[in-house]
Fold:
Amino acid sequence: MKEHVRRGRRARKAGLWTEAYAAYKAAFEAADAATSTEVERAELAGELGLCELALHKYRDAAEHLARSLEQREELPEALQQRFEAGQRNAAPHIARLVLGVDPPDAEVLIDGKRIGRTARTYTLFLEPGQHMVRGRAPGCKDGLHSLRAVAGAEHEFTMPLLCAAASGTKEASSAKGTATATPTPVRALPAPRAQAPSPWASWPGTLRVVGITLATGTVSTGAILMISASKLDQDMSARRDQLKSDPRSSSSMCWQAPERSPCGELRRLRDARNLSDRVGTALVITGGVIGAATTASFFTDFSFLGSTPALDRVNVSPVVTGHETGVRIEGVW
Structure:
């Protein structure tokens, strides 16, 4: 371990941060309770964190520097100041999570990776972005929490797990505390009967399909009519140009022209164009309104109309930040 430390110091002084990182990491992994003290391991964690900070490994740097500063009272003042300055430099690049779990012996996983310790409260460091926090314990229903970590921010929440044996444990502990109490066998609760799905549970999906179909159909028909109106307008322009080029025509000859005359044909084209344009515009507007209402239904919670628990659905919510705009879809499978 000492040889790794000497090699790491030489590389750090020479500005060779990759070599220094490898040396301090080897020293940190080699240190154990039998060959080193808590203060020595804290120093190694801090030096490793500073190397990771120089290599832009901000999450690892924040974790190792925080572990080192747990022994700050025992560290020399110079080292304490270096490690605190490194922690301040890493903080704007990572998110800090304060997580509470109940029961305290529950296993916690971040993005499927297990945290190698158990505690009632965790202080964790995360890369900015979306993360899935899972808690699990024997006899308990897994807890899930989707977290969008923001750089430089601190997130805090508690994850209680629903344990089926909680009530049985309480009864057992109270029985132990009473000398004359006799143990009561714990009976398994009967399985809940499957309930028929409420008719209200399916109608939002049906209406959404109908809404999408109507919106698509009306907008498409309206667009076709507006294209037809544009074509009729071109035909009118061509007929009008022909009439103007005729030396026998005048501005007053179309006032009382018969239906089968060129002026009558021009009036029919005008009426057809106006009708197509008005109907097409109305259909496009109607389709837009139906489409907006259908889109809004995806952001509306209809679970209060049926018996399906809110946790069994898929949540769709808009996301607008300084860096991106989109939709976040969450669910439990």
About this structure: The chain is about 50% helix and 15% strand.
